[in-house]
Amino acid sequence: MRVCKWFMDIKIGASILSADFAHLESEINRVQNAGVDFFHIDIMDGHFVPNITIGPGVLRDIHKLTSLPLDVHLMIERPFSWVNRFIAAGADMLTLHIETVSPSVFRRQAKYIKSKGIKLGISLNPGTALARIKSVLDIVDFVLVMSVNPGFGGQEFKSCVLPKIKYLRQIYNGDIAVDGGINNITAKRVIKAGANILACGTFIFEARDPKAAIRKQKR
Predict the structure, then answer these.
(1) Which secondary-structure segment (H or E) carries 28?
(2) Is residue 149 part of a domain?
(3) Residue 94 lies in a domain
(4) What pTM, to 2 d.p., does this model score?
(5) How far apart are CA 85 and CA 81, in angstroms?
């Protein structure tokens, strides 16, 4: 198991959904060499979100191609039915959506997941109130705030989530991640609001110079 210890400095994760899957190995190497801190891997089932992406088999292959931590974002119904398979495939972090689990069930499962050495996060969509996750903030390693409606990459950042991030920072001392529409401009806005982990896809993978793109986000 690779070490996944986050500090409050800014971390950038490359969202694999935006990679060219016809050249996945070279894409991973390119952005890894550019200095990303981890890979963010969106798992979609066509039910919770209107798209289908990858499963444990592809994750296992990605795990072979990089030594960086793999943050597996489960945008699926019944996520606990899949947890063990994604852990076995190489997940270092698991992010579950509060819209798919009850706080009470999440709390019961959290101890088991973390006993496997996995970092555990809770995510919420732009339209979901922070009140939904307050009762689990004491047991998660990080919170992922969605700044787009999940399902597809390349969407425009929703600025309505900025007050949510600011308030979350007031009540939560852990890592706050943001996912959706992150670029050099929106990165500054979410960092100012209190986030310290950014999941970014298009802006990194489509950049001629990924290293410069990452550097612009961390400034």
Answers:
(1) helix 24-34
(2) yes
(3) yes
(4) 0.92
(5) 8
- Domain residues for the domain of 166 are 11-218
Annotation says 179 is catalytic: yes
Q: Which of 42, 71, 141, 175 is catalytic?
A: 42
Return the amino acid letter for 26.
S
pLDDT, tens digit, 9 for 90 and up, residues 161-189: 999 999 999 999 999 999 999 999 999 99
Determine which one of 37, 71, 92, 179 is catalytic: 179
Residue at 6 is within a domain: no
Q: What is the CATH number of the domain that holds 38?
A: 3.20.20.70
Active site residue 92: no
Rounded distance, CA 152 to CA 146, Å?
A: 12
- How many domains is the chain built from? 1
Q: How far apart are CA 123 and CA 44, in angstroms?
A: 14
Does a structural domain hold residue 186? yes
Return the residue matching tokens 């289908």. 52
Nearest to 141 by CA among 108, 182, 186, 111: 111
CB neighbourhood size of 219 (10 A) = 9
